[in-house]
C-alpha cells in the first residue's frame, strides 16, 4: 500500500496489517481498537489509550478532540504517522458519531499536511481502517 495522507480502507483480502510493518521505515504507528463502540466518549477514550492527545480530552466535544489530536500528533515531531484503526463500525457504512470521528480524522490529516498550519513542518497522517 502506498503511504499517503488521509483515510484509507484496507481491503478484507489484505492480510492483517501489523504496526511493526511500518516502524522500521521511520513511520510512527499507533493502533487504536474501538471494538463495537459507536458513541463519542468511547471512541475518544480508545484514542486516548494510545494516541497522544494534547491537552488530554475526555469526550467533551469533537472540536476539542480534533484540536487535541492535531496538537498531540504535531508535537511528536514526526514526518509520517499511521493510525491503524480497528473496530466493527469503521468500514461498512459508518454513521452517527463514527462518521463524525472519520470526518475529524480527515480534517486533522488535511491540516497536518499544510505548510502554513504546521509552520513549515508538515506531517503525513495516514489513517488505515480495518474491521
Give an overview of the whole structure.
By secondary structure, the chain is of the alpha/beta class. Helix content is 34%, strand content 18%. It is built from four helices and four strands; from the N terminus they run βαβααβαβ. It has helices spanning 20-23, 40-48, 62-74, 96-113, and strands spanning 6-9, 28-33, 80-86, 124-130. Strands 1-4-3-2 form a four-stranded parallel beta sheet. Strand 3, helix 4 and strand 4 form a beta-alpha-beta unit. Helix 3 (62-74) packs parallel to helix 4. The radius of gyration is 14 Å and the shape is globular.
Residue stretches low in confidence (pLDDT < 50, at least 5 long) are: none
Structural class of the helix and strand makeup?
A: alpha/beta
Mean pLDDT: 89
Radius of gyration: 14 Å
Task: Write out the strand line-up for the largest beta sheet, numbering strands in chain order.
Answer: 1-4-3-2
* Distinct helical segment count: 4
The percentage of residues in β strands lies in 15-25%
* Biggest beta-sheet profile: 4 strands, parallel
| H/E element sequence | EHEHHEHE
Number of E-type strands: 4
**What is the helical fraction, as a range of percent?**
25-40%
Distance between the termini: 17 Å
Anisotropy-based shape: globular
